[in-house]
Amino acid sequence: MASVGVVGIFSFVVIADLGINAGLIHYGVKIGHLDVGGMSPVAAERLVQEVGREVASTPIVFRGGSLGTYSWTPSDLGWEPRTFEMTERAMKVGRRGNVFRSFGDRLRSWAGGIQIRWGAPSRNMIRLLALAVAEEAERQGLAVDQAELQSRMRAATWDWPREPFYEIPFES
Description:
Elements: H1 2-20, E1 29-31, E2 34-35, H2 41-57, E3 60-63, E4 69-72, H3 83-92, H4 99-111, E5 114-116, H5 123-139, H6 146-158, E6 166-167
Parallel strand pairs: 1-5, 3-6
Antiparallel strand pairs: 1-2, 3-4
Helix pairs in contact: 2-3, 5-6
């Protein structure tokens, strides 16, 4: 009797979830910092496109010691919001793989949320700009930790709202 009850409750929850999220992105799903849960794919695309343009054009400022400041936009770093791809990934949460994976995604989205990370900026562009900063620092007798600078540049691309500035890491 107890197992019939558990199966009944499980079935009710699955059917209710399917009804609530029919044609919509599951509640609890975020793209970067944007909560797109409960939205239609079209509404989510509009939001991602609008916010993505703002994120792509807002400067990321780095400073450190006597180097002064360096500023780039995520667009300069080869980043773009990839609106359709991000919305498609959000829509697939709870709708891919076998029944167990799909159910697991739905539980995670309801319980704690699922965050889909924005796409990455261009590795080559990040590497070139970090190298330029390191060369300028070297001319002034400073040593920049290029790997850490590249990591911070990638992280700052997705950071929102942006910090007023980010520190250039120096080697000890």
